[in-house]
Amino acid sequence: MSIFTGTLVIIPGLAVRALASGHVKKNEELATTGPYAYTRNPLYLGSLMLAFGFVLAARSWWIAGVLLTMFFAIYLPVIYGEETFLRHRFSDYEAYENKVPRLLPKISAPNHADVKFSWDLYRKHREYNALIGAISMIALLAAKMHWLSK
Questions:
Q1: Which range marks the domain in which residue 66 is found?
Q2: Total domains present in the chain
Q3: Closest CA to 7 of 142, 103, 145
Q4: Once rounded to an integer, what is the mean pLDDT over residues 11-36?
Q5: pLDDT of 61-91, one tens digit each?
Q6: Helices 61-70 & 42-58, crossing angle to 10 degrees?
Q7: How far is Cα 136 from Cα 138, in angstroms, rounded to an integer?
Q8: What is the pLDDT of residues 108-130, one digit of tens each?
Q9: Which of 30, 83, 134, 146 has the smallest C-beta neighbourhood within 10 Å, fewest atoms?
Q10: Mean per-residue pLDDT, 31-38
Q11: Distance between CA atoms of residues 59 and 79, nearest Å
C-alpha cells in the first residue's frame, strides 16, 4: 500500500518536471511560461515531490532524513546560486522574481499567454531519464516488498 501512496505523489512530480523541461531554454531565455508561471523552480519542486513519494513508498525515516539533509545542503544553495546567475543574465528576472514564488507554487493563473509545451525541449533535456528512474525505483521497492513478505 505504501508503494501505491508514494506513486500517487511520484506521478505528479514527474509531470511537473516534464512540463518544466518542455518550457525551459537554459541560458538562452528566461522561462516564465508553463509551470514557470507558478513557481520559479518547477524542476526542483518536481524533484522534491519525487523524493517525498519515494519516502512514502519506502516507509523509511532514515531515507527521509537523508533527503531532507540533501535538500538543505544541496538544493537550497544551488537555487540561490541560480537566482544570482539569472539576475545577472536576464534584466527582467527581478520583475519575474517579484511576481512568482521561489518554490511553492502560487495558485492564481498567470497574466500572460502561455507558450506551448515542446517535446523537442523535453528530449533535449533528457527528462525521460526521470521517468525511467522512477519506474525502476518503484519496481525495486515492489520487488523488495514482495521478497520480504515471503
A1: 2-148
A2: 1
A3: 142
A4: 89
A5: 888 899 889 888 998 999 999 999 999 999 9
A6: 160
A7: 6
A8: 766 665 667 778 888 888 888 88
A9: 146
A10: 89
A11: 28
